[in-house]
Write a structure and sequence with these properties.
Number of domains: 1
Strand content: 25-35%
Strand order of the largest sheet: 6-5-4-3-2-1-14
Radius of gyration: 16 Å
CATH class: Alpha Beta
Distance between the termini: 5 Å
Helix content: 10-25%
Number of strands: 14
CATH superfamily: Ribonuclease Z/Hydroxyacylglutathione hydrolase-like
Length: about 220
């Protein structure tokens, strides 16, 4: 089982603060992983405190792509936890990778790779914007966690299906309109940069979940 907690998003539940960007905590029986950091590190840490999340408990940080609204909280999270392993696409700027290496263990991602038990990176996908997504394998199907899905749903899902049947997608879907690729999924949790949110909700009302800060999902 995976427990996902949204820490940073454009929308927020009561008692939390929304801001442009995305970050989600992935908890397993083995370790805790942070996926992206939003853009405001101070806000990221405040939302974590409200959710009773201790940055020191996080073992690994995975960054989907090098856009400001996904990497802005890096300095604060690395300051709060200097023992992190940080997984970034290999195409990240050399200067940024050097700065991360000063404070953490840097792992560059190019090809699909295991991040943790039941969690794999799709590897670096896309042309104009290089991005990695995570594939969460429950043993009973897989869920895909995206930052913005810049490479397109087709490219991400085609890679993810190598790990098994994809049961759901969570995260930012940008301006993707490949709605047929979502048909048959048990969960479609869309947030952050998703341009066609209302269309997706209208097309898949029974499986759609709107992402907001404070949202918790248990994936089995």
């Amino acid at each position: 089982m995976f427990r996902l907690t949204v820490i940073y998003d454009n929308k927020a539940n009561q008692d939390f603060t929304a801001s442009w960007g995305f970050a989600v905590l992935v908890e397993t029986n083995h370790e805790t992983i942070l996926f992206d950091t939003g853009w405001d590190g101070g806000l990221l840490l405040r939302n974590m405190r409200k959710l009773n999340i201790d940055p020191a408990d996080i073992r690994k940080l995975v960054i989907s792509h090098q856009h400001w609204d996904h990497i802005g909280g890096l300095p604060e999270i690395l300051q709060a936890n200097p023992r992190l392993e940080v997984y970034v696409p290999a195409s990240f700027s050399e200067n940024l990778k050097k700065e991360i290496e000063k404070r953490a263990t840097l792992i560059e991602i190019k090809e699909p790779i295991k991040i943790s038990r039941g969690i794999r990176s799709t590897g670096e996908l896309g042309d104009k914007v290089k991005e990695q997504a995570l594939v969460l394998d429950t043993g009973n199907g897989c869920y895909v966690l995206t930052g913005c899905a810049h490479p397109g749903l087709a490219a991400i899902l085609d890679t993810a299906t190598r790990c098994g049947k994809v049961k759901g997608v969570l995260g930012g879907l940008h301006d993707n309109s490949e709605f047929e690729r979502l048909r048959g999924m048990e969960l479609i949790a869309a947030g952050h940069c998703t341009s066609h949110r209302e269309k997706i909700k209208e097309t898949f009302p029974e499986t759609f979940v709107e992402i907001k800060v404070g949202l918790k999902l248990d994936l089995r």
